[in-house]
Amino acid sequence: MNNNPERPFPMSQRMEIERLYFPHGVDATQIAMLDDIEKRLAEAYKAGYEQSSIFGFHEWSNNAAMGYVIMALERLNFYEKEIKSAIGAMYRVFDETSIEEAKNHYNTSDY
Hints:
mainly alpha
């Protein structure tokens, strides 16, 4: 775990980047450039993380998706038996379908 807030990436990653892009070594200017890039990446990551927290983005949850479906079907006055059937079908779809496949199916559907 990296405990230095000034260096958000492990030193081993930094050294790997230096070896990959500067196989003949780095000079003071290149070190300063890498330090600046690392700092800016850390700031961008932090800003993105904070922004996602403000808007309440959370990790994917099958239970949350089920909750959305149940609430939608309840608002449409579906019968309990129909809701249970839809939830049972969703459990099977979760097991058989990747998130990317489901997203693509939605994006290409008429809904």
